[in-house]
Design goal:
about 55 residues, mainly alpha, 3 helices, elongated
């Protein structure tokens, strides 16, 4: 496969992790999900609502 494809997919995964953290979700989990789902994970993250902040 083309090397640029993997670089782009990895970059998208990092962007999704940052987007997930901005919505108070686990960045690591969404990074891993994004490695498999790619743009579908981005669409899901854009559609879900932000979680309220929880104090532990």
């Amino acid at each position: 496969m083309n090397e640029e494809y993997f670089v782009g997919w990895g970059t998208l995964s990092l962007i999704n992790a940052g987007l997930a953290q901005g919505k108070n979700r686990s960045g690591l989990n969404w990074f891993l999900v994004s490695l498999f789902l790619g743009p579908i994970a981005t669409f899901i993250l854009v559609m879900v609502e932000k979680r309220p902040y929880q104090d532990d």
